[in-house]
Amino acid sequence: xxxxxxxxxxxxxxxxxxxxxxxxxxxxxxxxxxxxxxxxxxxxxxxxxxxxxxxxxxxxxxxxxxxxxxxxxxxxxxxxxxxxxxxxxxxxxxxxxxxxxxxxxxxxxxxxxxxxxxxxxxxxxxxxxxxxxxxxxxxxxxxxxxxxxxxxxxxxxxxxxxxxxxxxxxxxxxxxxxxxxxxxxxxxxxxxxxxxxxxxxxxxxxxxxxxxxxxxxxxxxxxxxxxxxxxxxxxxxxxxxxxxxxxxxxxxxxxxxxxxxxxxxxxxxxxxxxxxxxxxxxxxxxxxxxxxxxxxxxxxxxxxxxxxxxxxxxxxxxxxxxxxxxxxxxxxxxxxxxxxxxxxxxxxxxxxxxxxxxxxxxxxxxxxxxxxxxxxxxxxxxxxxxxxxxxxxxxxxxxxxxxxxxxxxxxxxxxxxxxxxxxxxxxxxxxxxxxxxxxxxxxxxxxxxxxxxxxxxxxxxxxxxxxxxxxxxxxxxxxxxxxxxx
Length: 486
Prior knowledge:
By secondary structure, this protein is α/β, with parallel strands linked by helices. It has two domains: 15-115, no CATH class; 122-454, Rossmann fold (3-Layer(aba) Sandwich), CATH 3.40.50.1820. It is built from 14 helices and 14 strands. The chain has helices at residues 15-22, 42-54, 68-85, 91-115, 174-178, 187-193, 223-226, 249-267, 280-290, 328-336, 347-359, 384-388, 407-416, 440-453, and strands at residues 122-132, 142-152, 163-167, 197-201, 247-248, 272-277, 295-301, 323-327, 371-375, 377-378, 394-399, 422-427, 461-466, 479-482. A ten-stranded mixed sheet has the order 1-2-4-3-6-7-11-12-13-14, with helices on both faces. Strands 5-10 form a two-stranded parallel ribbon. A two-stranded antiparallel ribbon has the order 8-9. Helix 3 runs antiparallel to helix 4. It is globular, with a radius of gyration of 23 Å.
């Protein structure tokens, strides 16, 4: 069996013990438990191994087996294992065991749940939502917002807490960021396979949504970015034809509200959960702060939090660059500077992501060697005052090598957020682009746990370390580095 994306991500403390665990008939997730392989834990881990081998009925785990009774037996065996394994460990060992066993059980059970639904085809459905725009350049005009849906074939009425909306960041549209069509890199499909009705949206100026006319004029780029298009697209650098930033955080919130209302009516639910990345943090988090009655839970990867940012908007449009582009060389250079581990990035995935970026922007694909375009957005409001009043349960994820939104900015939001239900994950071997990298499945499964149960590895309030190299035994498994914080 080929190793799963999680292979080796949970520290096992010894190669002999590791070989015994690897001999098990595992599901497609090579998991084990931190500290069960230490010398003083041999008796405990042997009993745990026996429970895992036998299940409740003596049948090894087969995630694709036809027997629902067998799956039920395995659920019981996994959930019983912690109680049968722990005899009299010290307090610290017991705390670590509880955390890692809970994480193992949750992810194995998630695999069981996913395997039960693999017979259902995951559909991709396009929607267009019309919004009365508040983008300064087209204020008051109707604009089309592109929405993609991923759901199991035949899904009609999802459970009220099983509807999710993905919101993108500053440069990459949502269908590219979250629905990468290779391997298991689609975050949207991962949740859809677990029974969620999953939507993503492009705010105005991105992807397949409306792009205001100023974005079609290369003169509205910065003078530095214009140079790459001389002389093929423009004869020489030129003066902007629009006076400032194209979109605003308020126009983004307006777009989001139109889509949320569309989903609520379409699926007859009161609330949706939201998953967001980078500038999507202020977009989705700011929306949740203003509309807590419409948002169930939040998952924020690298949220671009500004503790001391302004509470009120400046005069609009704010003077400055109208929009920006990113070339392939810029895309690669920005990513490469954030690679800190061997095999962190699969080159094939990088190729697919770039191809999808160009496909999402046919106009930009024809500029120079091909670029993706994105509006410059004026932001305000997502600061300590706003975040301190938030009560929405929130999972925050920081890539250890992220140089665009460094982990300390995510930690600041964790410290400031008013919700008592909050977890921060310090994700090892990961950059700002964590969903396209080798530890993506750790993050996908953690988000699934959070969206379903409001916990990760049994923790509903605290800071966790996940995805660090197993050779670093101090940072191997799901390690709770800080407990509940109000």
